[in-house]
Structures are given as structure tokens and as C-alpha cells.
Known about the structure:
By secondary structure, the chain is of the alpha+beta class. Helices cover 25% and strands 37% of the residues. It is globular, with a radius of gyration of 11 Å.
Amino acid sequence: MPTESQLFKCLVLCQIFSNFYQPIQLIRYDETRKEIFIIAGELGNIEITIFQQGQWRYDVTAT
């Protein structure tokens, strides 16, 4: 189960994507690693990982 910090950060980041009209392709919670993973952007090239304490990391992949 995601932590409250993870859920709040996920909501904030999804709102930011929405404000910039970026589609959210995938949101997944990995029970083994205890992380939320988001793929977003027109080409699915924005990847965000939200860790248990609410910190997050993003990667932009080249197309």
C-alpha cells in the first residue's frame, strides 16, 4: 500500500502534467520496491519514480 506522502506527491505531479496538457500513460505501484512509477508525455518519454518518503526522481528518455 502506498504511503500518504507517496499518494500526495503522485496527486501533485499528475496535476502538474494535467496543467501542461501532458497525457499520463501509466501509473503503477510496485509492491516489492514500495515505489510509484509514472509514465507521461505525448511520447511516453517522461518517467517519474516516487519513493516511500515522497521524494521523487524523473528521467526523460530520448525518442
